């Protein structure tokens, strides 16, 4: 399968070869996590040094329009994107490969980097490339025994058996239901991976799936198996008529304004744990609770701003969330369900539990085959510090009604209190399944079969009617334009809440970041959650 590429790549000298007035090849570097969207807030956008999928798409659009450009070398560095983001990058590179010659250079052959690189027409790796094609796996540390030894136990009330949000704290091992759903999710990811690589390399999905278990350890072995198209070092590909992307910016045609006459599409982000109140970021690196938090007030305000904007004819709600507060999820759901303008939900790496709840009444739901979704279930609980307090000489004293203090960690629930909490979460579960049944046109019985807290890959969710199609943000934007009767090039705009108070929004965010006063529990007094343990990192 040897190929003579003879690509005119990067040269240390500035001058182009004689007779060449413009570079014929451009080098595009890809490294980092590649989130789907740029940060929505001015402060976060200013501080972010990470390129997004959105920004990459804009770069590639410029390269596609460059008539003088023959090809692009996509040079993968430390590519740490999630499989869902990598799949979006794949689509962008495939759109470029439809018009230009695209070569992906991969010093590290990993499951995720190959998803993204499979959008290129040719895949090249150096002889010394690191090869890690061992499939997908997840690892979760259970803290139940650790906490118990320190005098802390955990009340974990859930609906139903697959709902695993708090089991890491209440149990000392993974139960059979959780293991079953995680394995099925990983199987769905590997099936999607095999489909992507098979399409790129012109083999059957069965052959591509076999690469995972083929014990490939070198670039040469990957070449012989058909995973890549050539083994070569970067200096063997370089030539004098190429330049890095940044060096050709002045040669790229400015982006043609989109057709805004008929209207536009609003994009509203919902990223992170769903909470009531304003969106914020928890800087404390706690399991499940650190990172961005999508406040219902902020998301609802953005959705209403999109509704009120006369030029906006459709809305895309981009969801990358494992859920959170049942109350906050329902408030956001209401804005989606009552919108007279069509709302399309696009799912990112996660759209589970409350992240699925908010999507149920969208006109269309788009997910990556690698999305983790579903988890239609409810959970509630609390830590019990009785033994911990005894060991450390702490003595909480109560005055007033016990029911008023039922969520206190100083003692377990009484039987009556436990019945009260279970009644409440069952009511939320019934409401959740009713939302899904109505929004997705399924029977309540079928929703319960698909629910019970179980997660699904986007690939499996499509087969079960929980989503409408596989794709990414560009797919969702195309669907929104179609539903609103807009032309295919109608513009999209990122919705942010209006400014509040006398200070510009930027100054307010800077002040909040400087004060950094964040509680450990982000849900206030709420204890009923449509939440999935978001700490599932595929490796």
UniProtKB/TrEMBL annotation:
- Mind listing the UniProt keywords for this protein, alphabetically? Hydrolase, Protease, Serine protease
Protein's organism: Deinococcus knuensis
Coiled-coil intervals: none
Instruction: Tell me the protein family, please.
Output: Belongs to the peptidase S49 family.
InterPro entries tied to this protein = ClpP/crotonase-like_dom_sf (IPR029045), Pept_S49_pIV (IPR004634), Peptidase_S49 (IPR002142), S49_SppA_67K_type_N (IPR047217), S49_SppA_C (IPR047272)
Peptidase S49 domain: which residues? 96-238, 338-486
Protein name per its UniProtKB record:
Peptidase
């Amino acid at each position: 399968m040897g190929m003579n590429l003879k690509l005119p790549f990067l040269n240390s000298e500035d001058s182009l070869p004689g007779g060449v007035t413009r570079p014929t090849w451009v080098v595009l570097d890809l490294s980092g996590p590649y989130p789907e969207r740029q940060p929505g807030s001015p402060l976060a956008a200013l501080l972010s040094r990470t390129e997004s999928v959105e920004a990459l798409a804009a770069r590639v659009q410029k390269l596609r329009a460059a008539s003088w450009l023959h090809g692009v070398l996509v040079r993968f560095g430390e590519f740490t994107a999630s499989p869902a983001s990598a799949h979006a990058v794949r689509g962008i590179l495939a759109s470029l490969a439809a018009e230009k010659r695209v070569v992906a250079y991969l010093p590290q052959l990993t499951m995720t980097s190959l998803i993204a690189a499979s959008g290129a027409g040719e895949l090249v790796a150096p002889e010394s490339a690191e090869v890690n094609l061992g499939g997908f796996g997840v690892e979760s540390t259970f803290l139940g025994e650790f906490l118990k030894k320190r005098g802390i136990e955990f009340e974990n009330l859930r609906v139903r058996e697959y709902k695993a949000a708090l089991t890491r704290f209440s149990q000392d091992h993974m139960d059979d239901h959780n293991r079953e759903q995680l394995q099925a999710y990983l199987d769905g990811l590997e099936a999607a991976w095999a489909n992507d690589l098979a399409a790129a390399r012109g083999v059957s999905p069965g052959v591509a799936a076999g690469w995972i278990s083929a014990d490939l350890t070198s670039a040469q072995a990957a070449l012989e198996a058909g995973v890549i198209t050539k083994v070569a070092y970067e200096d063997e590909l370089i030539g004098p008529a190429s330049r890095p992307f940044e060096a050709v910016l002045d040669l790229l045609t400015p982006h043609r304004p989109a057709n805004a006459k008929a209207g536009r599409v609003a994009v509203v982000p919902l990223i992170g744990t769903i909470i009531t109140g304003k969106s914020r970021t928890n800087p404390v690196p706690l399991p499940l609770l650190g990172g961005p938090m999508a406040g219902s007030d902020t998301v609802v305000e953005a959705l209403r701003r999109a509704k009120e904007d006369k030029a906006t004819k459709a809305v895309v709600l981009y969801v990358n969330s494992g859920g959170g507060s049942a109350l906050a999820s329902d408030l956001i759901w209401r804005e989606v369900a009552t919108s007279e303008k069509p709302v399309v939900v696009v799912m990112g790496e996660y759209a589970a539990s409350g992240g699925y709840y908010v999507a149920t009444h969208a006109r269309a739901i788009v997910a990556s085959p690698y999305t983790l979704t579903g988890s239609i279930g409810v959970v509630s609980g609390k830590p019990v510090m009785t033994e911990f307090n005894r060991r450390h000489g702490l003595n909480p004293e109560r005055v007033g009604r016990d029911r008023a203090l039922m969520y206190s960690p100083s003692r377990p629930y009484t039987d009556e209190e436990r019945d009260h909490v279970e009644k409440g979460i069952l009511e939320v579960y019934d409401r959740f399944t009713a939302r899904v049944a109505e929004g997705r046109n399924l029977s309540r019985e079928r929703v319960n079969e698909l629910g019970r807290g179980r997660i699904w890959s986007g690939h499996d969710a499509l087969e079960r009617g929980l989503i409408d199609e596989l794709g990414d943000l560009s797919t969702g934007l195309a669907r929104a334009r179609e539903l609103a009767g807009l032309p295919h090039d109608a513009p999209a705009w990122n919705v942010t809440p209006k400014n509040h108070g006398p200070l510009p929004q930027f100054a307010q965010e800077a002040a909040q970041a400087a004060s950094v006063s964040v509680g450990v529990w982000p849900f206030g007094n709420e204890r009923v959650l449509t939440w999935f343990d978001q700490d599932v990192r595929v490796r």
